[in-house]
Amino acid sequence: MTRSYISRVFRFAPSPNGYLHLGHGFSALLNQEMAMATGGKLLLRIEDIDLERCRPEFEQAILDDLTWLGLAWQQPVRRQSEHFDAYRDALASLQRRGLVYPCFCSRADVVAATSERPDWPRDPDDSPLYPGTCKQLSSAERQRRLKAGQPAAWRLDMAAALKEVHQPIDWREYGGGSEPRRVKAEPALWGDAVLARKDVPASYHIAVVVDDALQGVTDVVRGEDLFMATGLHRLLQILLDLPAPDYHHHELLRDAAGRKLSKSLRAKSLRALRQEGLTPTKLKAQFGLHKRSFAFVP
Question: Which pTM does this prediction carry?
Answer without folding.
Answer: 0.91
